[in-house]
């Protein structure tokens, strides 16, 4: 039973993997969601029973003109908050072409801020990333510094954080959530998605890197639960930064592939590894989060990386 | 006596206050300097005895087309390093107009990186800023985090740091120097410059803020000495970040004005303060650096803020 609370939320990147999962939870909690995305492919919420709670705005928020156009369409709506999730999702591609990240990860933030100001939205929620930190052996908490991103994606997420805080006087509350790798059966990028895509084309599957890269993963539904819990808390501070992820140091690429092999589509497939320690230019082969802050402020249990991966594989099996 | 070492250095922002002082030292050390700046006003080194060691390239490095044009002019020159000092200098103006900072502080970095790559320059030196940190009561060392800049200038310096590190695999050595406020009798902006400018127009001088903002200052010639000393050291690390400033917590605006009053031009002037604790949107009223790292790596003594201010006033007196 959904209790309509007649409140509106604006989401950028609404057709992205995490955006879609976010919207599901917002709608289930009775929000009317206005989603902005440049992709025109059909959105699952346009088909669901709850489609009346989802309004899709097909604009590219990396473009200055989109701000005016979107504003003129929704200027009469009161929004409780904006969740800015639009960004480039192909980190490898962006590291070979700065312009992609400047446009899709930085300018999307710039114009989301502009749009939020115009619409007088007072809460700004931003999907930042572990990619802002760069290569480090330390366990990364919220006070970690200096940030020395190795991918242009990480650089432009860091730039976005800066632009949000330097405009913080326009807002009542800001949440900056720094995600690790996020998994789910409906992934639109990342290792598992990549392996499935490659399996359809060939019996020999090339894996990027030597397979020993070890990273923490969070399950998308678990992630959204945590975000929404913190969002609903009565936090008084203006700028709130959280590193969100599991407590463990993650699993290797080889571990994930050993799990994937149980899926029918990978029977008879051969996986080939490279010699490189990193999968692509800008890849961070190992890192781990100190998540004491999010554990203190959220009652939602964060699944271990192993459990997150297993849950994803189980969903794919179905 | 200048020993010509036939080595070339490229400097962006060559007509800026710090850029000009940097070039003086580079030329005195026998370097041939290629300076890039969009300002066309006469440069002092064009007039000096050493003008043959200075080549001025009048281009706006915030524009994509400038990269090609500059490249075609100097592609045959071997450069030891690029010192990227171009940026917006009016922080207050930039905080009310994001686009100024994106263009003059961020895109200048983006295209300086592009130019350095094209010219195969292997050392990149960047003038970053204490503005990246935001408001904090802590003593700020190089590992300080999270960076929450309050000015768009600070945000775009942070963005620049990120873009430099995410492209660090193109370079052999990177220096990121985070400056505090910099003073000198040839200042082209800042409090002292502002007061002198206002004194010429009226007997009543409006000071921004309540005068109690307390900040550390470094004297420009002292700053350049430290930078050049570290630059010449045989440091093996790829990315080297330094917070550069005096060891003290700085002086108040009122202190500086009490010193200025000794100058003839301020006799009979009345200074009026505002109520605001900050001078402008994005101003950081108080901060201090922990400079243990620079003290360890440089033998150059850093003057106290008081001495730096007094030296500036003395030079102005002359």
CATH topology annotation of the domain at 8-184 and 218-246 and 288-300 in chain A: Rossmann fold
**N-C termini distance of chain A:** 26 Å
- The CATH class of the domain at 8-184 and 218-246 and 288-300 in chain A is Alpha Beta
Largest sheet of chain A: 7 strands, parallel
Q: Identify the CATH architecture of the domain at 8-184 and 218-246 and 288-300 in chain A.
A: 3-Layer(aba) Sandwich
Please trace the helix and strand order of chain A, writing H or E for each element: EHEHEHEHHEEHEEHEEEHEEHEEHH
Radius of gyration of chain A: 19 Å
Strand order of the largest sheet of chain A: 3-2-1-4-5-7-12
Total of DSSP H or I helical runs spanning 4+ residues of chain A: 11
Largest interface: A-B, 36 and 36 residues
Shape of chain A: globular
- The mean pLDDT of chain A is 93
The share of residues in helices of chain A is 25-40%
The secondary-structure class of chain A comes to: alpha/beta
CATH fourth-tier homologous superfamily of the domain at 8-184 and 218-246 and 288-300 in chain A: NAD(P)-binding Rossmann-like Domain
